[in-house]
C-alpha cells in the first residue's frame, strides 16, 4: 500500500524540445494540459523563428541551451527540472501530446522508462518514409540483439523516464543519437522498459533538423561504440 502512495506522489516534469518549431508549437501547445505535470519547461536550441517568444508569451519557462545538439537538450532538461518522472516531448507534430499521461502512467505502474512506439502492434506512422522505416528496424533489431531487448521502436525520442534512471545511465550522446544511447544503457543496466503504441502524424511546418544519412551513420556508430565499451571491455 505504501508503494502505491509513493508512485502516486511522483512529480512529473515535461521537457519540450525545440529548434525553430513555431508552427508546430502554435498548434500543439494548446493541447498540453497543465494537470499532466507539476512542471513544464522548454529547452530551446537557438530558435530564430519566434518559437521562444511564443512559448514565453504563453507563460512557459524557456531555457536556452548552452551547448548545441538534441542530446545536450535532454541533459539540460534533466538538470533544470526536478520531477521524479521526466517526459521528453517534441512539438513538431510527430508526437501526439495526449500520449503524455499514458507514458507517465506506465512509469507510475513501475517501469523505469516508457517509449511511445511507432511500430508496436496497434501503432501507426504517417511520417516514416520507407528508408526511415528500414533504418528504424535496423537500429532496433541491432539494439535488441546486442543488449537483450524485445523492443519495436528503440529510437523514438517521445518517452518518459524515472529521474534516477536517467541520472544513473549518465548519457553523453550530443545529437540525435541520445535516444538510442538511453535505450541501450537502460537495457544494459537492467532497467525495465515498456512501449505504448502511438500514432505518429506528419510533421507540422518547419524543417527537420535530422539528416537521414548523417544522423543514420551517427546512430550506428553510437550503437557499435556502446556495444564495444559495455560488452567487449
Ligand atoms: N532543444 C533542441 N531541440 C532540437 C534540437 N534539434 C532538434 N530539436 C527538436 O527535436 C524535435 C525532433 O527534431 P526533428 O528534426 O523533427 O527530427 P525528427 O522528428 O526525427 O525528424 P522528422 O520526422 O523529419 O520531423 C523537434 O521538436 C526539434 O525542434 C536541438 O539541437 N535542441
Ligand atoms: Mg519530427
Automatic annotation (TrEMBL):
The keyword Transferase applies. CDD domains: DPM_DPG-synthase_like. Pfam families: Glycos_transf_2. GO terms for molecular function: transferase activity. Residues 13-167 form the Glycosyltransferase 2-like domain. The keyword Aminoacyl-tRNA synthetase does not apply. It comes from the Archaea. Keywords: Transferase. InterPro entries: Glyco_trans_2-like (IPR001173), Glycosyltransferase_2 (IPR050256), Nucleotide-diphossugar_trans (IPR029044). PANTHER family: RFBJ PROTEIN, UNDECAPRENYL-PHOSPHATE 4-DEOXY-4-FORMAMIDO-L-ARABINOSE TRANSFERASE-RELATED. This is Glycosyltransferase involved in cell wall bisynthesis. It comes from Halomicrobium zhouii.
Amino acid at each position: 500500500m505504501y508503494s502505491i502512495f509513493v508512485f502516486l506522489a511522483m512529480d512529473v516534469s515535461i521537457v519540450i524540445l525545440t529548434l525553430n518549431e513555431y508552427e508546430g508549437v502554435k498548434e500543439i501547445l494548446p493541447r498540453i494540459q497543465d494537470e499532466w505535470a507539476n512542471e513544464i519547461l522548454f529547452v530551446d536550441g537557438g530558435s530564430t523563428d519566434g518559437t521562444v517568444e511564443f512559448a514565453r508569451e504563453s507563460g512557459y519557462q524557456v531555457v536556452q541551451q548552452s551547448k548545441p545538439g538534441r542530446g545536450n537538450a535532454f541533459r539540460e532538461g534533466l538538470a533544470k527540472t526536478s520531477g521524479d518522472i521526466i517526459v521528453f516531448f517534441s512539438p513538431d507534430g510527430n508526437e501526439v501530446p495526449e500520449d503524455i499521461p499514458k507514458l507517465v502512467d506506465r512509469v507510475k505502474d513501475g517501469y523505469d522508462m516508457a517509449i511511445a512506439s511507432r511500430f508496436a502492434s496497434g501503432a501507426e506512422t504517417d511520417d516514416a518514409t520507407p528508408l526511415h522505416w528500414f533504418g528504424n528496424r535496423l537500429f532496433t533489431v541491432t539494439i535488441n540483439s546486442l543488449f537483450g531487448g524485445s523492443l519495436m521502436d528503440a529510437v523514438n525520442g517521445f518517452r518518459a523516464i524515472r529521474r534516477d534512471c536517467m541520472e544513473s545511465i549518465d548519457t553523453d550522446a550530443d545529437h540525435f543519437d541520445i535516444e538510442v544511447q538511453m535505450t541501450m544503457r537502460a537495457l544494459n543496466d537492467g532497467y525495465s522498459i515498456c512501449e505504448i503504441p502511438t500514432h505518429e502524424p506528419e510533421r507540422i511546418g518547419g524543417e527537420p533538423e535530422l539528416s537521414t544519412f548523417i544522423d543514420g551513420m551517427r546512430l550506428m556508430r553510437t550503437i557499435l561504440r556502446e556495444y564495444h565499451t559495455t560488452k567487449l571491455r
